[in-house]
Amino acid sequence: MTVTLTALGWDTDRAAYLRRIRTDHRPGRVARVDRGVCTVLAEDGPLRATLGGAVLAAAVGDATRLPCAGDWVLLGTWPDGRVTVEAVLPRRTALIRRTAGKDAGGQLLAANLDTAAVVEPVHPAPDAGRIERLLSLVHESGARPLVVLTKTDLAADPAAVARQLAAVAPGVPVLPISAERGTGLDPLRAEVAPGRTLGLLGPSGAGKSSLVNALAGAVVMPTQAIRRVDGKGRHTTTWRALVPLPGGGAVLDTPGVRAVGLLDGSAGLDRAFVDIADLAAGCRYGDCGHETEPGCAVREALESGALTARRWESWRRLQGEVAHETRRRATRPIRRRGKLS
């Protein structure tokens, strides 16, 4: 299959940026990163590229500046045939999670996604809290959010399950799909028109690799059967991979997500919980803490059942996490040249 950069998302704005910076380096898109070596899709085909000194220097103290699957990069070719990544072009969207550890920063999961789908299987029962957390991440990234309900052939009434998920994803389309039967795929295919990129996020065994294969019309990603004992999946994809599709566009598959910590991204949280944000706007006091204040629209919704206790507690937990991370990053020592200043 011949892949053009235009089909992968190269456009007039990116071309104009290249003219402005007056570079002789050629562009390409990162399909995969493996221990500092990038597989890059270039106009003359896929190639392997190591990281140039300027890229490594720019990432000192901030690993999110390193190339990631989905990034557009500039490539340099040396007389001995080596190819290096000399620059990472500005990202339009960036999916970043908090990494574990006291002094940890962020981990870039994917770059330049037009749409990011939270993939949740119908069995075992969908995890509402996980969906809310991942949607907060997607909203913060700038990508268009979707929820994809997979393996609907295992449900007696998949439409009912989709309606339940819609309650935890206000304003976000929920697409019930069976890759096994090939049903419900058309709305998802529309998200990967030529030049557009769809990212898939979700737990192991959610069927992300099966979705990639269904969209590609061929087996391009390995899949595994679920465990019979509990219906849960096994890790199939162990790295992030950008897969070009025959009709143009690309899909970015990610490994099963076990833990997703939020960075200081309250805007994404507000959009994921827009129902609570709208309720809070109706409180009598602008600084309402939603505890015992009179005229609290949030407490009234909880008492009437219009807002579930589960969703409220989920919002409070994530809000506390974001607030803690914001404080931590504000007091984090600045790193220069790899040392504490």
UniProtKB/TrEMBL annotation:
Its main location: cytoplasm. Residues 326-341 have a biased composition (Basic residues). Keywords: Cytoplasm, GTP-binding, Hydrolase, Metal-binding, Nucleotide-binding, Ribosome biogenesis, RNA-binding, rRNA-binding, Zinc. Gene3D superfamilies: P-loop containing nucleotide triphosphate hydrolases, Probable gtpase engc, domain 3. It is found in: Cytoplasm. One of its GO terms (molecular function) is rRNA binding. GO terms for cellular component: cytoplasm. Residues 111-258 form the EngC GTPase domain. Its EC number is 3.6.1.-. Binds 1 zinc ion per subunit. Its cofactor is Zn(2+). Residues 322-341 are annotated as: Disordered. It is an enzyme of class 3 (hydrolase). One of its GO terms (biological process) is ribosomal small subunit biogenesis. It comes from the Bacteria. Zn(2+) binds at residues 283, 288, 290, 296. Residues 102-260 form the CP-type G domain. GTP binds at residues 150-153, 202-210. InterPro entries: G_CP_dom, P-loop_NTPase, Ribosome_biogen_GTPase_RsgA, RsgA_GTPase_dom. Monomer. Associates with 30S ribosomal subunit, binds 16S rRNA. One of several proteins that assist in the late maturation steps of the functional core of the 30S ribosomal subunit. Helps release RbfA from mature subunits. May play a role in the assembly of ribosomal proteins into the subunit. Circularly permuted GTPase that catalyzes slow GTP hydrolysis, GTPase activity is stimulated by the 30S ribosomal subunit. Belongs to the TRAFAC class YlqF/YawG GTPase family. RsgA subfamily. NCBIfam families: ribosome small subunit-dependent GTPase A. This is Small ribosomal subunit biogenesis GTPase RsgA.
